[in-house]
Amino acid sequence: MSDSHPEPHPPEATRAPVSPTSVAGSREWFLTQQRTRPDVPLPVLVERAAVIEQAIGVLMVVYGVPAAGAARLLTWRIQDTGSDARAFATRLIAELPSLPAPLPEQRAVLDRLLFTAHQLPGGDQRTR
After folding, report:
1. Alpha carbon separation from 93 to 46, 70, 80 (Å, rounded)
2. Taking the complete model, does pTM exceed 0.85, yes or no?
3. Which among 12, 33, 109, 121 is least surrounded, fewest beta carbons within 10 Å?
């Protein structure tokens, strides 16, 4: 990162995970907040929350934090900028293609995981 943009880790992003329902920015929080609008069907609410989950997943990978830490990081930036959660997450995800591609070594690590995840403990061992 450049000197003008310090690494955006709030101190609490690396703390122990908390219940997802208590973390603003998580799907559960978003759905809980939106359920006060009975005029919006649940599938629409789930679709609206999906982009927030995508943003949380990106932050998990890039910063190496658990889901709760990534949600806190996202929430911190949303609150710090006074943004709408879904609009902020949508913009973040929309800008990802403009970032440089990962280095070949980074992609190779993900490639190995992609091809072996089913063999890891707790993975899907079913035959196809």
Report:
1. 17, 14, 18
2. no
3. 121
